[in-house]
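Subject: Sanity check before I submit

Could someone independently write out the C-alpha cells for this chain? I want to compare against mine line by line before I put it in a report. The sequence has 119 residues.
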Amino acid sequence: MKLTCIECPKGCMLTIEKTDAGVIVEGNDCIRGKRFGEKEATNPTRTIASTVKTVFEKMPVVSVRTSSEIPKGLIFQVMDEINKVVVKEIYPAGTILIPNVLNTGSNIIITTDMTKILK
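---
Independent answer below. Compare away.
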C-alpha cells in the first residue's frame, strides 16, 4: 500500500508491505514515518472533530472532538453516538459529553468554551 505520512510537515510518500516477518515501511525520512506506516498497516486510528447540537439560539452547535485516537473502523459508529447528543447546559471547554465512547477509552469532549460565548 502507498500513502502519505502525516506525522510531520514533510509528507513522505510511504510504501508499506505486510509480510510474515512483520511490516516493511519504505520512503520515510524519520522514525516517526516508520511507526506511522506500521500502525496504519496493523491498527489504523483517527481523531474525530465534529459538532453537537445545542438548545441555545446564539450557539446552535458546539465543537467537540475525541480525547484520543479511536480505531478507524469505529468512526461512523462514534459519529452516530455524537449525533445523538443535544447540549442543554452551558459548559467550559474540556467538559466530557460522552465518557468512554463505545468502550474505546476515548471521551467526546467540548472544545469551545461555551461560558465565554453564552454568558
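---
OP: Matches mine. For the report I'm noting this point. The radius of gyration is 18 Å.
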